[in-house]
Design brief:
Largest sheet: 5 strands, parallel
Distance between the termini: 54 Å
Shape: elongated
Order of helices and strands: EHEHEHEHEHEEHEHEEHEEE
CATH topology of the largest domain: Methyltransferase, Cobalt-precorrin-4 Transmethylase, Domain 2
Strand content: 25-35%
Number of strands: 13
Radius of gyration: 19 Å
Strand order of the largest sheet: 3-2-4-1-5
Number of domains: 2
Helix content: 25-40%
Amino acid sequence: MKHLYIVGFGSGSGDGMTIEARNAIEESDLIVGYTVYAELMKMHFPEKNFYTTSMRQERERVIFALEKAAEGENVSLICSGDSGVYGMAGLALELSCSYPDVEIEVVAGVTAALSGGAVLGAPLGHDFAVISLSDLLTPWDKIEKRLECASAGDFVIILYNPSSKKRSDYIAKACDVILRFKPAETVCGYVRNIGRDGQKSRVLSLGELSSCNEIDMFTTVFIGNSETKELNGKMVTPRGYKNV
């Protein structure tokens, strides 16, 4: 049976990759992925053949992977973090209907909410919402509505894709929305380059976060709920609202 693995490889470090993800890549003849992610995997699997495309060529990348799998190769379509969280699993499963002979296996990985949360301490002890600030595929008014709802519900909020060269003001825009519902003293944190060289983290307030200029597209942002605390430099959200 022709096989396509859709692999979430975590942060990119060897230690952060699951055994299942490593096994799937090792069993594959070809690795397909976004150029930046492929470069990370080449460090761990230099003997493998790679096919890469640039950003915003996701459909072409998936079709290529499916076609190669249909030709009889075992293929890994790689994604950072988890393959189903802002990853390629959904698109690959949608397009796979045209390739009925290809068996699809989705391989879970450690998404940045979890790996970054571990760096900061324990920010996800209670209910949380993950929201991407990228408006390439989602209009800003829908993103803003989701920020409003998550903030009004007192969720811990994790922000993916918080900033880029073209969206340098988006973290400030998001904080402006959240500050309508959460006080400026709310405990927040961010981690840049999770599990990679140059990893940097910081615990700070929501007010400080709104004017922070150290956040880019490789950063994951954590915004606490009303019970989140800073304890010995760590960000901690209790498991419940009672007896805390």
